[in-house]
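Lab meeting minutes (informal)
Scribe: AK
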Amino acid sequence: MSSSLEQGRIHDDELEVLLGDLAAQYGYDFTGYSRASLKRRVNRLSSLDKFPSFAELRYRLRHDSAYLRRFVEEITVNVTEMFRDPSFYQALRQDVFPVLATYPLIRIWHAGCATGEEVYSTAIILQELSLLHKTLIYATDINPAVLEVARKGIFPLAHMRQYSSNYLEAGGRNDFSAYYTAHYDHAKMEESLKARMIFAAHNLVSDHSFNEFQLILCRNVLIYFDKLLQDRVFRLFDESLEKLGFIGLGAKETLRFSPVASQYQQQGKEKIWRKIK
């Protein structure tokens, strides 16, 4: 095995060794993630942190828990925005939430929530439909650092113009600025939106179902998993979803070829499926 990180490039066999270390020593199982995506991110981090050899990167990961946290933060994908794909949120508003309104308590799981922009998007629509008070939104991610950002609900003010545009396209009814307070270069989301949110660490790869939900949202996470891991996650979601509940995925993701596909029916053109069996 080569021990040199040639210009920050990690070899395939070295990546497998790192993934084995992370799983065995810390319980972080990234073995089902897309190798191309992982390799790009590990190479980028190795270059940023100037590791002269693979052996030194491996040693640091095995003996420095603070660096392990940085490593996990860098290789997990946390790109998101409020009301991402506005037509998806319009479909939630028009087709999904009116059905869930008939329940005495609505339980929603945002799996792989990253920094939480989409969690707040969901809460805003629920508030506008007078449903937030009887909803619990569970927001989970493998990455504790991004969960902390989500919990605080403080985002760059520069992003608010784009988020406002997305919100209006998604059928928003108010002035979007009513949902946050501007502080210098940041925007703090209203506390009333957070009141019904529960943030917790959860690993889609290794952790089990922890509740029964009427809606599970996992958007733009599964595209980074291989087929075997995708199938495992779909089974987890199926175990966690009530009959007649809904699953919402990202624009490039599908439930169609999963082991549970026959139990679901796609709702319209958006990536939303309903559990019919």
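Next up, CB showed the second protein from the same session:
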Amino acid sequence: MIHIVFNEADVKVLEAAIALDETLSGNVVQIKDDLAVGPLGNIYIGEGIEARRQWWRDVLDGGDYHGKVDSGEPDDYQTAAELVGTMRRNEAETIWIWAAQNKHDVSGYYWLLHYMKEFQGRVFILYLNNLPFINEKGNIFYPSWLYEIPAKEFLKAKKLAREITLSEFEVDPDEWIKICNENKGVRLLEGGKKLEQKDYDFYDAELKKFITPDWQKASRIIHQFLTKSKQTTGDAYLLWRLKVMIAQEMFDVQGKVENMKEFELKTK
């Protein structure tokens, strides 16, 4: 059994769940790219793959994750190739895809499905869509992310595993290709597995609300956005958007505009 997740924090909690239940025994594999943002055109061929990598280079340039694109990590295409090779060599192997109700996991699911079709009947989905769980305090809650679920609760979640149907293997990749061809920069989850798309500046208006007449480090502005906003995204993307707005001379700035802790900004 191979477990696939889409967030680094999910790996740890799922491995803890496996330690509690040997029937879940298997390797945990993470798809690392945040496919809820950025270009998706020709995403499965060289031209599109390189275009997306170049976009990430531009986004991460001079920031807290500078150089990560060319460090060899993440390389989800290599991960996908290794999964396909394993499944072809071992016909008894199965894959469990774990996804919570958020745009990041759902986008990752759609991307991965392209490589899984030949293994229909051996690929399972555990989509924790509007399902209640019990948190560490004993209260019922509805998780948006897998890592929010206590490890022991995964033992209940495993009962939700079901085969990805032939119909899903036909319909979902078509929906994903439609999304890829729309040439938008931000994906949001409407509900279920339905994604809607917005332009690259979607988060800008909300992000600007946290910029005040007083000097603040970019890291503080981003932290406030992440803790108070309903729709959020990764800190690297938000740092890039701040830099775009600074380049448009929308704010006063002091310090070296690179890492988020190195510069401050305020309203003009």
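CB comment: The chain has two domains: 2-178, 204-267.
No objections, moving on.
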